[in-house]
């Protein structure tokens, strides 16, 4: 109402009239100005034309501000999000054969804004999966090969002293210039991350949690979106350093690819080179659509009963069955991953089946206990906790 009163006053001033004083209402101000304008030399018609112009501009600006400010990237409807997700999975399935569930888990992890850990034997397609997702999602991609002699500066970047000649004064000048490392990309493949020492692995801690890096006292933000897909070899292999629990908890999911089935492996042997096929992939999402997908996943409804179920699962893991229970960050990640899984399935609400689908990937690298393996922990919790 204040905005309308201001517009009326502006119209009165442009009309050459004195705006009304006091606490009169909007209708009273309109009546006063209209009555004054009727006896003015210019007549009432010009006044109402200008008032209509001001009101039109006001509502036009209101519409534009609502559209541009509250929606910085395009929104995506449920059916469109489901269609886009299926297109990504179908295209990735042409490269990674016979692995629909791991592909769906990987996509759900990225839509939930999480980081992905892939642990398996060398040569089963871990690196190819990361390359494929980066191409299909249209993300800036960098690969970091972790080795035992790697330093944190090899990942984050380093400042180098550079000398140059000032053209104006002819004086030789110099200064330190920061050269960003490969961490400054949207999708990072940390290949064989457990072959690096804990000192080098620590360079990922701040980046994965806070989406920024700090070096030489200066904090630099990372690109948005930012994902880390790390691969690690089984810990019993020579030359590996186990990841600390603090870093493992920063990965939303841990998945395995495993050996392909017989039909999938035959198609792999008879088909084209996978590296050439990945290079020929075109992005399926335009700029901003990935963030729209993430927003659509966040908007998937989780009922109070469903949240109670997630909380019960977390409580069960903390009651002495395992060495350490699930952290609050893990519980939040479980719910976010379930929302993303429901979105991929084309639903607007989360079902307990969605939570059960992503639970093994969320807990496999977080929980340890006697008699359990990474593949059986999730199934044990699902069987032990009743449905709501």
Q: In sequence order, what are the helices and strands, one letter per element?
A: HHHHHEHEHEEEHHEEEHEHHHHHHH
Question: Strand fraction band?
Answer: 5-15%
Q: How large, in whole angstroms, is the Cα Rg?
A: 29 Å
* Strand arrangement, major sheet: 2-5-8-1-9
Number of helices: 17
Average residue pLDDT = 80
What profile does the largest beta sheet have? 5 strands, parallel
Outline, from the CA principal axes? globular
Count of DSSP strands: 9
Q: What fraction, in percent, of the residue positions are helical?
A: 40-55%
Description:
The structure is a single chain. By secondary structure, the protein is an alpha/beta fold. It has helices at 2-15, 26-38, 44-69, 78-93, 100-111, 126-137, 153-156, 198-201, 205-210, 245-248, 262-270, 274-279, 289-298, 304-317, 328-344, 352-363, 377-384, and strands spanning 116-119, 141-145, 157-165, 172-180, 187-191, 212-215, 218-221, 227-232, 253-255. Strands 2-5-8-1-9 form a five-stranded parallel β-sheet. A hairpin with a 6-residue loop joins strand 3 (157-165) and strand 4 (172-180). Helix 14 crosses helix 15 (328-344). Residues 1-43 and 63-74 have low confidence and may be disordered.
